[in-house]
Amino acid sequence: MAKGSSCIGATHFVILAILVVATTVSSDDTTPIPAADSQVRNWFNANVKPYASRKGTLDAALEAAEAKPRTIKVSKDGKGDFKTVTDAIKSIPSGNIQRVIVNIGPGVYTEKITIDRTKPFITFRGAPNAMPTLAFGGMAKQPDGITSGAQAVALRISGDKAAFYNCRILGFQDTVCDDRGHHFFKNCYIEGTVDFIFGSGKSLYLETQLNVIADQALTVITAQARKSRSEDNGYSFVHCRITGSGSGTYLGRAWMDMPEVVFAYTDMGTTVNPLGWSNNFHPERESTVFFGEYKNSGAGSNPRGRVKFTRQLTDAGVKRFLSLGYIQGSKWLLPPPM
């Protein structure tokens, strides 16, 4: 199936931070994510500390932005600074150099929300007990009247260095366009049918649930878009959970020539196809894809039925996928604001 150019969003909950800064790799990036899920919280707290305890270790532009954060409030009842998220974003100047936290009150905000690349250091925050819903419906063919198909992107992220915490992202086909840049997803829920995480991003998904909607046709979780070995992008899923109905879902397919996708310590339900991965009807790509698995569990994780081009990774082979170094995170990744 072809990809549309639309970024029309389906319903989702959002808490995110967007940064655009330079990156230097730190030795702290190499601390491995522990094998036991019960230890992940301590690992995260030790390696992703708040700004106050990391002054002098972060990128200079990020430190400057965090020095004097400001908060604006969006509320549908008119009691905030703005009634719409779009208006709140418009109020932030291009070339922004200050952390701006946008507190979004409860309710459904039916808006097609865009944060321009000239507006870094923006955080969306919703209350855990009254989470907002950002919703917009549409199809890929609607923006230009030409593109066929029914896919609707719920979230497109093409900014470098962005983190998503406790987000619930819902769509059908092409739910998350993980387009490009370094990204981090933690404790999220992502739902879809075909290629519902796709693109050329370099992303680490930690403790995130991937839910497959039952469908009569093909179901695929990832369509990672690396085209050559010179491109530094890929997806690493660690301590995630794959749920859904049916039994034919592929973990990924060779949408492009050289995709890189790894699942480690992931609980795979019965929805996962025993073959695991698809060459996307391009057998010549079997020798160029990097589809890896490491110490997964659950009914869908049995390596014996996998296609021959799956890599069952060794401790050494999986190492680079199991740390913040995969996304160069030690210089930019921060926990969500309290």
Summed up:
The chain is mainly β and 338 residues long.
Overview of the structural elements:
The chain has an eleven-stranded mixed β-sheet with strand order 3-4-6-2-9-12-15-18-21-24-25. It has helices at residues 40-47, 60-67, 85-90, 315-318; strands spanning 12-13, 16-18, 70-74, 100-104, 107-110, 122-126, 132-135, 155-157, 162-165, 168-170, 176-178, 182-186, 189-192, 194-199, 202-206, 209-212, 220-224, 234-238, 241-244, 250-253, 260-264, 267-268, 277-278, 290-294, 310-312. Helix content is 8%, strand content 30%. It has 338 residues and is mainly beta. Mean pLDDT is 89; it is low at 1-27. The longest helix is centred in the first third of the chain and has 8 residues, at 40-47. It has a domain at 12-47 and 132-137 and 151-330: 3 Solenoid (Pectate Lyase C-like). The termini are far apart. It is globular and about 55 Å long. It comes from Hevea brasiliensis (Para rubber tree). It is an enzyme of class 3 (hydrolase). InterPro entries: Pectin_lyas_fold, Pectin_lyase_fold/virulence, Pectinesterase_Asp_AS, Pectinesterase_cat. Belongs to the pectinesterase family.
